[in-house]
Amino acid sequence: MEKKKDFLRAIVEEDLASGKYEEVVTRFPPEPNGFPHIGHAKAITINFGIARDFGGRCHLRMDDTNPMTEEEKYAKAIEDAVHWLGFEWDGPVRHTSDYFERLYNYAVELIKRGKAYVDSLSEEEIREYRGTVTEPGRRSIYAERSVEENLDLFERMRKGEFKDGEHVLRAKIDMSSPNMQMRDPLLYRIRHARHMRTGDEWCIYPMYDFAHCLSDYIEGITHSFCTLEFENNRAIYDWILDTLRLGPPRPYQYEFARLNMNYTVLSKRKLKELVDSGKVSGWDDPRMPTIAGYRRRGYTPEAIVNFCNSIGISKANSVVDVAQLEHAIRDDLNPKVPRVMCVLDPLKVVIENYEGAEELDAPYYPHDVPREGFRKLPFSREIYIEREDFSENPPKGYYRLTPDQPVRLRHAYIIRCKEIIKDDDGRITEIRAEYYPDSKSGADTSGIKVKSAIQWVDAATGYRAEIRLYDRLFRVENPQGPEDLNPESLKIIHKALVERAVIEEKPDERFQFERQGYFYPDPVDSTDEHPVFNRIVSLKDSWAKKSKRGEESSKRVPEKVIKTKSKKEGKKEPLGEEGRVAPLDKAQQEIFERYRRDLGLREEQANPLARDEALRSLFEAGIKRGAVPATLANLLLNEVARELKSVSPEELRYGPGELAELTKMIEEERISVKIAKQIFEEMSRSGERPEKIVEEKGWEQINDPQKILPIVDEVLTKHPEKVAQYREGNRKLLGFFVGQVLKETGGRANPQVVNELLNRELK
Ligand code: ATP
Ligand code: MG
């Protein structure tokens, strides 16, 4: 089967071909804070599948860095899920906690390089200082601590001298980075909590951004695949490995779109709420989208893996139709499982002209005739049929048993109704019938025409069974919470009847109960004395037609849904869009590497520059004129690139010289980042040199505290109540004061200085 390669496999293939790595090593890194769900199955299929396809290895790593939420039972559930889906991890199960000591040492190394500091702002202040997407953040005053002081504090954090939240360790990167994640991200926090594996050994725990890249590095991972939400974290991933000068070979992160599915919630937090509130019977409730739930319901691992492969790997988020998963289950079960008979709502039929008993030969696989496999089907005078297979006043087009219309009993005889017996309330309790002795299935010489065959179960030998009819857990496409639950997601039938072979022969684990659906004995509750069957999936998609009902009551706009193509429509192509990014060609790759190596550009800077000729030539010329590489790269990629969408490079009113000048002014802190944008706009309008613009407009950044102090005082005098509130503990107001001072100075005051002054004045 020739299958189009997804973009992740294309990357791996290239990296192996180019000799970047000798072997591909991937990992699946779940946090053991809940049971894995179908989204994790996708990540498992990708990580283990790619390793398998390229003869590499895949690790299973419990990302256990938050002792408050993690438990061994979840780790166990994850291991079970991976095995059940048919994958085997390389070596032992690994844990981020295995590396706590090494991670600690890496953190010490960062401190020694002046690239990390202990911050003592409160959680709230840290959030406030971070700025917003449009406003740069401000650096904490504690960022000025000396290396010695940081080393001492960090060691004392480890020793447990401080309370939770008193200090954190942060990377010293860039508080005005347009990527918010890069604004001095947290690396360690204090948590006096018992860890499921390391007990009380540690009271500081590494954050995901710090632990993940280094754990990948320690394990020799080559390709670190994760979901799109982590796109902005990639810069930290690279920053940490690069700053510690680790590798090559070192791992790189690549993102793919997570699986979203309609009628389903895929968030461990939301699933845990359902469990904790008792809305479902547990993580393995057969309605849950967890691997444990699907497994208990009767889904097969093959069907789930097929589904994961069929949806493809994409770089664009979309919503997969849950019907597609249900199709995958039917597709898998349909050829495999035996057909047997079950009656959900039994109506007694007494065949008056039948005496004694017999055993009929009935194939288990009537859909697959050459396949062997028969059971003896007991038949006698009293049988049960499905209540709805008899109609006293049949509507038009009713093909089953009526007072005037005979019907065939599947694998047996044709019967006709002679008499209807009712109770005092008028409810039918029994049908008296008569059979045609020469109408036996396979040897029918009766010449009687019937329009259909119905299932039945022999009264003397059939077994009572409890049947659990499961349906979708949520009734709307885009469920948010318990209010969207489908009240009919579970219907229990206590007195169904199944034919003898289902209990006594067990030809398979799963069955098709003819005309009803696919069923599986509940692995927790079912016994031979009290059989319980879960409906895995109905025979047809009953939601395709009725799906209107839920949606009308819900006003939510569904995201783009990838609709299932039915099998008849032919194509079996994966439905996900192949969001493949064209690889760099050889020349581009060389440029990319040179920019990374010699100019210290980050991957996301070097890559687009290597690809875009116009930007690249401006970049090279700017460097020759002394521009600061990273700053110039940002200017080009953010500002110039935008302009080049509407004008050609020759039409730009500035050149590399002006750009270089601007980068130097930013670097020397003569202008703020905010002002730099205004200068840029002015440059493209007037073509003036930045120096001149700054001079004319008076936009020079004000760094001198003596000049800023009077403005600070003025602002404080103007807002006496706010000052009082601040002093009473409303620290949120700091941002307000900073904003006021910046406004007064037309955005020219150095925010860091303003911050420091305010802190001093407000004491
Ligand atoms: P949730 O959001 O459901 O709580 P998570 O992302 O917090 O999940 P982790 O245990 O951190 O769960 O995830 C382990 C791996 O599985 C990660 O690499 C993550 O990207 C991946 N993953 C999680 N959810 C999905 C999904 N819906 N589709 C594909 N991959 C997923
Ligand atoms: Mg998570």
What is the compact description of this entry?
By secondary structure, this protein is α/β, with parallel strands linked by helices. Helix 2 (38-53) crosses helix 11 (301-310), helix 18 runs antiparallel to helix 19 and helix 23 (705-718) packs across helix 25 (733-744).
Q: Can you put this structure into words, describing what you see?
A:
The protein is built from 26 helices and 27 strands. The longest helix is centred in the first third of the chain and has 16 residues, at 38-53. It is elongated. Helix content is 37%, strand content 17%. α11 crosses α12. β24 and β25 form a beta hairpin. With 763 residues, it is an alpha/beta fold. The protein folds into four domains: 1-258, Rossmann fold, CATH 3.40.50; 263-396 and 453-558, Beta Barrel (Ribosomal Protein L25, Chain P), CATH 2.40.240.10; 586-697, no CATH class; 705-761, Arc Repressor Mutant, subunit A (Orthogonal Bundle), CATH 1.10.10. The protein binds adenosine-5'-triphosphate and magnesium ion (MG). Residues 29-31, 39-40, 42-43, 226-227, 258-259, 266-269 line the site of adenosine-5'-triphosphate.
